[in-house]
Amino acid sequence: MNIVECGDQGRAKRTGDHAADKAGFGKADEMNMLDTRHVILFNHSTSAELFSAELPIPQQRSQSDLLRSALELAHNAKTNLTGVDLIEQDLSNLDLSNLKMNKAQFSTSDLSGAKLMKGRLKEANFGGACLAGADLSGADLRHARLAGVDLQGANLEGADLRRADLDGADLRGAVLRRVKFEKASLRNANVEGADLSGAIFTYCVANGSNFTNALFDGIEFYMSDFKQVTGMSDEVRGHALRRGCGFDD
Q1: What is the pTM of this model?
Q2: DSSP of 121-174
Q3: Of 188, 111, 187, the residue nearest 156 (C-alpha)
Q4: Which is nearest to 152 in space by CA: 136, 168, 130, 167?
Q5: Do 94 and 114 contact (CB within 8 A), yes or no?
Q6: Residues 6+ apart with CB under 8 A from 30
Q7: Which of 10, 165, 167, 185 is the most exposed, fewest CB within 10 Å of its CB?
Q8: Continuous segment of H or E residues that includes residue 197
Q9: All domains of the chain in start order, with CATH
């Protein structure tokens, strides 16, 4: 992968085979962008000409607009964005579906309404991010860091959340049908009104979580910890107890 990286002084630095001037930005040492620490990424399947044709001159656009345009191009080219730094960015409503973004950094970014369907997001860090209304259906979120994240109304149907950290996450009204929560942590999460139909809780820790008005149709339990939870009906608790799950009583 080749990148054009813009440093703290707003000057481009060259990495790989393509310099900034080949990406249509003029000479690298003359590039005058606002304070930015982004990386504009492209691989061999995405030519410099494509970037130059699609992206207006940097001085005419904000760094936020440039980043969004670069990510749209990356999505269209199916670019590998493993480990990309997207901390504290406005990524709302962007289509980032089907992309490989393992270990990506999304801390404190706005991903509300974003499309991340079937994304490969293993070990991605979403700390402090907003994912309200986002579509993460079918996404691979194994080992993802989602503690305290706003996932209100998000669609995670069929997502893989094995060993994910969801402590304190806001999952109110989220679609969690058929989600794999194996060895996931949901301590003190708010799952009120969420649809957990067909979800799998295996060796999961959900101490102190709120499940008020959640749907549990066809849910699978095994050896999970539900101490101090609220909102579970006696029927659901009985089913979980028969499958070796722990409660206070």
Answers
A1: 0.78
A2: -TT-B-TT-B-TT-B-TT-B-TT-B-TT-B-TT-B-TT-B-TT-B-TT-B-TT-
A3: 111
A4: 130
A5: yes
A6: none
A7: 10
A8: none
A9: 1-79 (no CATH), 83-249 (2.160.20.80)
